[in-house]
Amino acid sequence: MKKNVVIGFLGTNLDAGKRRRWRPSVQITEHADFPISRLELIHSRRWSGLAEKIKSDIEATSPQTEVLLHCIEIRDPWDFEEMYGAMYDFARDYGFDEEREEYHIHLTTGTHVAQICWFLLTEARHVPAKLLQSSPPRGDDDLAGSIQVVDLDLSKYNALQQRFDLVAKEYNTLLKGGIDTRNEAFNAMIDRMEVVISNSDAPLLLMGPTGTGKSDLAARLYELKLQRRRIKGRLVHVNCSTLRGERAMSTLFGHRRQAIPGAGADRRGLLQEADGGVLFLDEIDELGLDEQAIILHAIETGKYFPLGADYEVSSRFHLIAGASQDLAKMVAAGKFRADLFARLNLWTFALPALRDRPEDIAPNITFELARVEKLLGNSITFNADAQSTYQNFATDPGTLWPGNFRDLGASIQRMCTLAPRGRITQSMVETEIATISTIWHHANQDPDLQLITKHLGAKAAEIDEFDRVQLAAVIRVCKQSASVSAAGRRLFAASRAAKTSKNDADRLRKYLDRFGLDWASCQ
Asked: Where would I find the beta strands (DSSP E) of 232-368?
């Protein structure tokens, strides 16, 4: 068995025994069920005499206990900084042997400041010990009194662990907006994010295509930090895509009125508005290189120069950045500062597109219904067949949702607005599917499809995407060539060099014929 070692301060009042016979540093060694192998007693030089007397009394009543005295000079035992520093140095130099000894900190003696320091050092494992509290006897029969051991290893307390798990679940629900998400990758990302945001104030980078919920998630992260009391200020949301040139500098960092022609007064700037809170730089990939440099300086030092100012102002904020483009590629292209990217890249979370989370579409439809109900003030539901049709469309791999959750929210709102009786019918869903498909067709049409549609009309939609790219390239070569032979020579130059091509013009005519085209139609 490990030997029990107790560390504590000399009690200058209690151990002196002036008011009562019970002396905690002496009586703690007299418990038969808690044998103490060694007592480490800390005292100042002023109380060396009392310390020697306590040691002598313990050796007389408990000869099995070794008493070691440590003289540590502390000018003001109520000065937290001095007390913590002295105790930290003691712990650092002690030389704990956890394989052979079990350590306990005696909290009964010493000032309240010392007790707080013991707790902090023990909780942080600078002192690998349990806490020990001794109490005076309640009667004359038990002169030794009682002792109570407190282990700060919270993982050993099942009830506490369950409460921690419940709180973590509540925080996760907050970050997910109350939506019962089922995608394992997304849920794992939220779990990790909750741990990071609860324990770190380092910058956070949210990556993902437009409409994946970066702004909403940033607001929830701010709310969580507010609940965890890690911030006191407000959330300042900045859309960097709207900032250009001098206006960007003034908006972000503020200005002195003499720096801007026509300015009637100084301007604080959004960084100063975010002091003590969260600054969310949405679309940070749209921010200019000069602004990026000042943002980096502000993150690292908490200071920056407003426009026209000859002195720095301070602002401490937690930065959350959102980006739709790949910042690593932008760094390689010289469009984003490598040092700022390195600073942001400590905690990066990639938000998946809606089409990559098909199992989460159903709960998000329910969430959007509830949101629109509050907006319109009506209770709205799907008919059973309508719900089945819409959900099949929404989860179909061919439904790409280019605007992600924005597209889904807009679609649900359209149907709810057109359902004055509170029922979304099958015909309404069919109309909505046609509407949203048309919107995507026009808004997201690629140049290849536009070119092919110009020549084939509605038949272009029947061509696979794989063939679409090749056909568009062939049509462009035909437009640029003087003759079918010249176009064939250009298109089949590699096979001609390998002597596998015999009649380039004929090959081109046959290829075009597959799609109902000829040389003339491509001109």
From this structure: 235-239, 278-282, 303-304, 313-314, 318-323, 347-350
